[in-house]
Each structure stands twice: as structure tokens, then as C-alpha cells.
Design brief:
Layout lengths: L3 H5 L7 E4 L10 H9 L12 E5 L6 H18 L2 E5 L2 H7 L3 E4 L6 H7 L4 E6 L2 H7 L5 E4 L16 H8 L6 E4 L4 H9 L4 E4 L1 H4 L4 H13 L2 H10 L1
């Protein structure tokens, strides 16, 4: 089974997605943390166009959200990475984002694609049923939590890599989320994930650039780079 959404856009699904949480930055401005994080791509072996930043600040709306989105669009454009906006198709269009990411209480993927056919449409799925429901219109899907993480415990126990492998049969490019760290990247890629996403691993990191570099190197480096990384963690 193949997703029509993933075929309809000339959009390379990112291999590393940094999901924002301004409450996790220890008081540092979110735009500053994102800018520092994106410096970690250099020298990692992962091309910038395979990285994305997803603005996910659910408590913001109106002008504060648009202003933050514009600030992050400037940072991502300067770094050559993709920019996604959570839920808000109107904000994504207003700031020139590359796509929108939809949760369970958002517009349906079909409605989002009807409103903004040029945007990539990502969905969140916490099981096969949710993945199947959004697949016909999805460019990609976050799938998880794969491993235990406090932010995702409300969705139930971790799905594990076996569920990830089973989900690849749906045909939507999958981005593994939930407890992702450099040492687990090889395992989720081997299970069939296109890439990984993380929140606190970068947003809360004392050195966001180093955190991104380690993740990006695990994704973009060759076997020798991954072996070096495993020995260092």
C-alpha cells in the first residue's frame, strides 16, 4: 500500500526533525536554541536539506505564534533546513513554511491538503489504526513512542521496533519518535524508519549543537562514524 500524499509532492522527507518546546530550554530564547542546534549539522555527514525544525507550541496562537514562526523560518532558511508548523495551516502559509504537522485534534489530512496542496502534510500516529486513517493524504508520519519517554507516556507503553517494522507495510515514510538518542538511531533505521524526531534531547541540551551533531552523525555518517559514536556514548 502506498500513500498518495507521499507521491504528490516534491518533498524529501527529513531524516532528522527537531520539535520545539520553549518550556524545555531552561529560560533560553527558543530561536537562539534552534539557531545553536542547527550549527551542529556542519561536519556531521547529514545534508541540511534532510533536517527539519517543527514549531510545536500548542499554547500560542495569533500574533505571538506568527512572530515566533517567522523568527524560526528565518533561522531555518539561513541554515538550509525545512520548516514545519504544528496544526496551523494558516500560519504555515503565512510564513512560507515547507509543511504542516497534524495531531489528533487538528484538521484532517484531507482537509489540510485541500486548503494547501503545496504544503507537505505530516501526521502523528501512535498505532497502525491511526496510521491507516491518515495514510492516503500524508507525506510522512511520526510513529511512536518507540522507546519510553515521559512526554509520550499518556499514549501508553512504548511501541518498540517490531511495531515500527510492521507499520512500514502501510507505505508512508515513518519518522520514529519517543526516547530517541544517538545510540538508538541504528536500531530504528534497521526497523524501517526513514528518520527520527526528538524534542527534549535537543531543546533541553546544555549544548544543542553537540546534541544535534551526535544525532546527525548517527544518521548521516558511514559505519565507521557510527561505530566511533557508539564507543563514545
Amino acid at each position: 500500500m502506498t500513500s498518495s500524499g507521499s507521491e504528490s509532492l516534491d518533498f524529501a522527507v527529513p531524516r532528522l526533525t527537531l520539535v520545539t518546546d520553549r518550556r524545555a530550554t531552561a529560560g533560553r530564547p527558543l530561536a537562539t536554541v534552534v539557531e545553536e542546534a542547527l550549527r551542529g549539522i556542519a561536519g556531521s555527514g547529514l545534508p541540511p536539506h534532510e533536517v527539519a525544525v517543527q514549531l510545536r507550541e500548542k499554547d500560542l496562537s495569533g500574533q505571538p505564534l506568527v512572530e515566533l514562526a517567522r523568527a524560526l523560518r528565518d533561522k531555518t532558511a539561513a541554515a538550509g533546513v525545512k520548516f514545519l508548523v504544528n496544526d496551523r495551516v494558516d500560519v504555515a502559509l503565512a510564513v512560507g513554511a515547507d509543511g504542516v504537522h497534524l495531531g489528533g485534534e487538528s484538521l484532517t489530512p484531507a482537509d489540510a491538503r485541500a486548503i494547501a496542496p503545496a504544503l507537505a502534510v505530516g501526521i502523528s500516529a501512535h498505532g497502525i489504526d491511526e496510521l491507516l486513517a491518515g495514510a492516503p493524504y500524508a507525506t510522512f508520519a511520526f510513529f511512536g513512542p518507540i522507546f519510553d519517554t515521559p512526554a509520550k507516556r499518556r499514549y501508553g507503553p512504548p511501541l518498540g521496533t517490531a511495531a515500527l517494522t510492521a507499520a512500514t507495510a502501510i507505505g508512508v515514510p515513518l519518522i520514529a519518535i519517543g526516547g530517541i538518542e544517538p545510540a538508538t538511531v541504528d536500531g530504528v533505521l534497521a526497523a524501517g524508519a526513514r528518520g527520527v524526531a526528538c524534542i527534549r534531547a535537543v531543546m533541553a541540551a546544555p549544548d544543542p549543537a553537540a546534541a544535534v551533531h551526535a544525532l546527525a552523525r548517527a544518521l548521516g555518517g558511514g559505519p565507521s562514524a557510527r561505530e566511533t559514536l557508539r564507543k563514545s556514548v
